[in-house]
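EI: anyone free to look at a 188-residue chain?
SC: sure, send it
EI:
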Amino acid sequence: MKYSELIKNCINELDKIPDTIQEEFGYLSENQLNWKPKPKSWSILQCLEHMIISDSQYDEPFEFILNKYSKNSEDKEVKFSWLGKWLINGVNPQSSSKIPAPKKFQVNHESNLKKEEILNRYLARIENLKNYFQKFQGLDLNQIYLSSPALWILRYNLSSCIQMMTYHHHRHIIQAVKVKRNTQFPIE
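SC: here you go
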């Protein structure tokens, strides 16, 4: 897959999220959206809040990349870095393995979040992420490395980061849908 295909595919996947959010969660009450199946598990709104927190940690590194690197790369084949492959596999929505959220990306375990605030902030993060991906067109995605906001010593290339972040969103949307489908989920 070429750089342009990776970016296009990931943007297309992110484009589906607003409709999914509306269809799956738009009609639910704040009480339902804050309900947790277990005390230490996350509610639907906490899943989305986690994505807001984790995505926002990439704003500064992404701005740095856009200001530092010139857009003169040919459309090369994507090559995920070794660590990138591991992270992509870990957040792949089809994977059954669980990687615990780093402390920096954790949500407050008290689930009393406001529906409109979280949904609006989450959808704004999706748009923000798509804009970054679009701006990455023309960069050498395999050669540009960034440190993980969770632990600076972990480094992966931008190709890996783009795929990982897209999968991460889908993984937590699936997690949120599972909360809604729980047999104990409140009816109001």
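EI: Residues 3-180 form a domain with the Four Helix Bundle (Hemerythrin (Met), subunit A) fold (CATH 1.20.120.450).
SC: 👍
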